[in-house]
Amino acid sequence: MLLRLAYLGLTNSFALLRLISTRDRDKDIEILAVRHQIGILQRQLNPGRVRFTP
Predict the structure, then answer these.
(1) Nearest 10 degrees: Cα torsion 42, 46, 44, 32
(2) pLDDT, position 5
(3) Is the pLDDT of residue 21 over 80?
(4) Nearest-CA neighbor of 54 among 30, 43, 38, 41?
(5) How confident is residue 31, by pLDDT bands cut at 50, 70 and 90?
(6) Which of 22, 29, 53, 54 is most buried, with most CB under 10 Å away?
């Protein structure tokens, strides 16, 4: 429960930063958020089941 609260706080802070930042910074923050979400999904799935390729 505490981990989920920390995750929600982190994602909301990224959303807030997205609203007040510049154009280049918006893109960089969004890329970091998507990479973080992909990392979470990869840990939740079995490593042999689904593999993401660049």
Answers:
(1) 0
(2) 86
(3) no
(4) 38
(5) confident
(6) 29
